[in-house]
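Now produce a polypeptide, keeping tokens residue-aligned:
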Amino acid sequence: MEDDITHKKDFKEAIKLLSKGVDGDKKAANSAFEKFSKLREINPDSAMLEAYYGSSVALVARDAVHPLEKADKAQEGLDALNRAVSLDPQRKEIRLLRANVCVRLPESYFHCSKMAIEDFTLLLNLYEKDASYLPQKQVSEILKNLAEAYYNVGKPVEAQVVLQRLAKQNSKNK
């Protein structure tokens, strides 16, 4: 029982470190990666841990100096995120993590913007069925990233449609 409490505490701390890493703190990104790696060893069947691990590996890749290490780590992170989605394909947080990583990876190398489009579209469809599914701020962020993903795959018309939807939503929420 005590181990479970410790693991939950470590998981929450790792998420905070990951967030700091996303904001540019390289030391926090590495610490998040280390924590998620250890937690993943303890619970290798957890889709959530796999997703956060994948996201942390991708973040470490962002900060890597050597191009091969950068590419290998990014692919490792993407593979973990794909495993997480296959373990729990309907989990909102997992889809968000994968989509956000995919939209930021270079399309010319990883070709994963289509996955981001799939994930963001799924989330928006679920939101349309139930407006409480996502907070408005998150919907705006998803729309912005979805437009970027469409641009990444060479679909500017679709991107513009999404940006119009974003503008409409933003004016409605003012």
